[in-house]
Write a structure and sequence with these properties.
Elements lengths: L7 H14 L3 H11 L8 E6 L5 H9 L3 E7 L2 H10 L7 E5 L6 H4 L5 E7 L7 H12 L2 E12 L5 H23 L3 H8 L18 H10 L2 E10 L2 E8 L1
Parallel strand pairs: 1-2, 1-4, 2-3, 4-5
Antiparallel strand pairs: 5-7, 6-7
Amino acid sequence: MTERSWNESDSHIFIDQGQIFTPRRDELRSAFLDLIPAERDDSFQVVELAPGAGWLSAAILEQFPNSSLLALDGSEEMLTETARALTPYPGRWQTRPFQLLDRDWRTQLPTGLRAIVSSLAIHHLPGTAKRDLFADLHSHLAPGGALLIADLVEPASPFALRHMARAWDDDVERQSTELADSPAAWEFFRDDHWNIYTWPDLEMDFPSPLVDQIDWLRQTGYTRIDIPWACAGHTLIAAYRD
């Protein structure tokens, strides 16, 4: 494939600014935790695809003290940052390198997983490669297990595109002031063209329509599909294996 790859300079920026660049990340984290099909004291395993700075992996291990987690990322810098975030949970986690588009790593995943989660990574897969990923992951979930994916979706109309672009800018500008007490992060986000609804990167970003992703999930065996959270084009899809 010829698509531009995520590189370590992107990783460094997102580690530093991810909480500001992601709309309402605290809300998103709470939604992920609510949707994992487990009680607090259950013993189970989760896989996170592309954990970034490890904020979601750490939240899962904190919320469920008998859980364990495998984190896969294609960036060495992201894996290092995830390991740092998970230091308070010794013996309960592993990190492993992978390339999202490859399929070999999928066959090597554990089975009987309670959940597979991912945040802001799957849109780097072209169209039906997402369908293939959904299919490959299904058999690794335990009955009742969850596939939870938060990601950017392709707007279905120019009016939705206009709204998503504006809403994302507005949230980053607000969070830059509230979280960092400075407009600097917002100004960088704007000037570096991070808003793909305004500045699409056709070599690296491939958001798919929400309806297509729901269809692919159904076609590959998932049921009980919901959209429990959405903000500024960022959408959390929850799907379960019967």
